[in-house]
Amino acid sequence: MASPVETPLQRMELLIGEDNIIKLKQASVLIVGVGGVGSYAAEALARSGIGKLILVDGDTVAPSNLNRQIHATFATIGQSKTKVMKKRIESYRNDCEVITQDLFYDATKNEEVFKEPVDFVVDAIDTMSSKLALIQYCLQYNIPFISSMGMANRMDPTCVTICDLMKTSYDPVAKIMRSLVRKHHIKGKIPVVWSSEQPTVQTKVIYEDGITRKQKMPPASSPFVPSAAGLAIASYAIKQLLKK
Questions:
Q1: Does any domain span residue 2?
Q2: pTM for this entry
Q3: Considering its fold, how many domains does the chain have in total?
Q4: Cα gap 225→184, rounded to integer Å
Q5: Which domain holds residue 190?
Q6: In sequence order, which residues have a C-beta less than 8 Å from that of residue 58 and are 6 or more positions away?
């Protein structure tokens, strides 16, 4: 008896059905920020069957990324994060279109970043003003999205969860975002992935010549929490896309 022919998305199809696989293959997801959280979100979305991924990030792979970013290897240090992620995805999904934009997103880049229609947006940006701008754009144009809060200075992936921004606690990034949302009178639900784990306080000076506190004392980060957040984001995105 001949063995059945295996396909890359066979196990996912068994889980969600052929019609939903077709739906995912027709979906387009924009991921802004392809670091510790964003790279794992991209990986899981690609392996789930998403047909088009648009990756936005102006950064390159650094040695400090090796402990937590899925595209980071000795061979990719110094290379564009979006380009190495694209190459990685194409090594296992030859039917997934991956578009890269090597730029740092801010409010002035909306026309460029959103030049193609998207079905879902992943915010995995570190900069607060850019994060706020992306959330505002998605709310204004009714684009489904999820935003990642702070994943640094933590060790427990089981504390990662998803809820509305206004229901978060223990998260310094979420606290800043709540304040900004109130200040700018932003209305609407803001789904976020965040960690209920109390973060450690980083006090060790790494770069004496740094100008800002973040430059002098970069946040500590484990492999566990950013990856868990990225996977949670991908799961949420898939569920939202299948509701359409």
A1: no
A2: 0.94
A3: 1
A4: 30
A5: 10-243
A6: 102, 103, 104
